[in-house]
């Protein structure tokens, strides 16, 4: 999934940083999971902070029902952890968990 996010970022940059359309069958569960994961990873890169709770809460203000079960919520945490583990060799990468 981390590779998918990297591909989306790369394609978005090539196309002029326009909006990204993401949709699943109900437009909530898997769509919300992808959007939350994408947002968490982008914030992690920019601010070195992981705050899945606040990210999901903010997204739910705009779209109630995003990330609608515990498995999806846990998946976002695992994706962030996988992403962080790619930086194990970098001593200057300091991380804050919220």
UniProtKB/TrEMBL annotation:
GO terms for molecular function: protein tyrosine phosphatase activity. It comes from the Eukaryota. Residues 1-74 form the Tyrosine specific protein phosphatases domain. Residues 1-83 form the Tyrosine-protein phosphatase domain. Transmembrane segments: none annotated. InterPro entries: Prot-tyrosine_phosphatase-like, Protein-Tyr_Phosphatase, PTP_cat, Tyr_Pase_AS, Tyr_Pase_cat, Tyr_Pase_dom. This is Uncharacterized protein. It comes from Amphimedon queenslandica.
